[in-house]
Design goal:
Length: 274
């Protein structure tokens, strides 16, 4: 089994990066692993921490229509160049946390995606150098208010609600290019999305090189590589699970966002990090 790099919160409230062990304990690192974090003597027992998203990026850069069949179901062609947008880091929630449907949308969709985690500062990176800048891989759900996306003509509001980026549960360093991505609703046997990562129009290293020509990518930043065909709506009470072979599965429950209340996990975590 590949090493699983996690980020956790101890019962005392401290944040730690670490290595998940087979018995679910966490061997703590003294820094994020992409910033040369080293193993310490501290070990957290399986019942003594809660899992967080595995990194705390300065930004999430996402790519639209990066699988041909999904571009077609959205009523468009595959773009000539990557179609980029940004999700704020406050959209991130951990595996097992709730996705909250806001009152302003009547159509919120799941989008299972491969997420890249950057290991290095990256500016004007060549295609040849790009692969070495990717530290690892995790799973994301690019939750989208589809009605607002169509209504607004640009995507900021639709993509940016708190809880709209489940991420995790851990990072692995290696990934087979032919690995399959699948999304399941309510533990149904058949997936609602299923595609090989090799079906992407623009590859992970192409995306890193392309984005780095526009903005500086920082260690820990996240790139969402686009979703395959089969996106669809989420309802209150749904359980949505995104699986990627060789990584694992990311599962979240859907709830209605309470009026006038922000989710404590997302906001507290972000401020504790800074
Ligand atoms: Mg997407």
């Amino acid at each position: 089994m590949a090493q699983r790099y996690v980020r956790v919160q101890s019962q005392g409230g401290q944040l730690h990066y670490g290595l998940l062990q087979p018995d679910q304990s966490v061997q703590v690192l003294d820094a994020p692993p992409w910033l040369t974090g080293q193993l310490t003597d501290l070990q957290l027992a399986a019942d003594s921490y809660s899992i967080l998203a595995p990194c705390a990026p300065s930004k999430i850069v996402a790519v639209g229509r990066n699988y041909g069949e999904h571009a077609a179901e959205m009523g468009g062609d595959v773009p000539q160049e990557p179609l980029l947008f940004i999700k704020p880091s406050t959209t991130i929630v951990a595996a097992g946390s709730a996705v909250l449907i806001p009152a302003s949308s009547h159509r919120v969709d799941y989008e299972g995606e491969l997420a890249l985690v950057m290991g290095d500062r990256c500016v004007d990176c060549s295609l040849e150098a790009a692969q070495s800048k990717i530290w690892g891989y995790t799973i994301a759900n690019d939750v989208t208010a589809r009605d607002l996306q169509r209504q607004d003509g640009q995507w900021t509001r639709a993509k940016s609600f708190d809880t709209f980026c489940p991420l995790g549960p851990w990072i692995v360093r290696e990934l087979s290019p032919g690995a399959r991505l699948q999304t399941f609703l309510n533990n149904a046997k058949n997936p609602v999305q299923s595609a090989a990562l090799s079906e992407m129009v623009f590859s992970p290293e192409f995306l890193v090189a392309y984005i780095s020509q526009i903005m500086t990518l920082l260690p820990g930043d996240v790139i969402l590589t686009g979703t395959p065909a089969g996106t669809g709506p989420l309802q209150e009470g749904d359980q949505v699970r995104v699986e990627i072979e060789g990584i694992g599965s990311l599962s979240n429950e859907v709830q209605i966002r309470p009026a006038m209340a922000l989710p404590q996990t997302a906001t507290a975590e972000a401020s504790a990090e800074r």
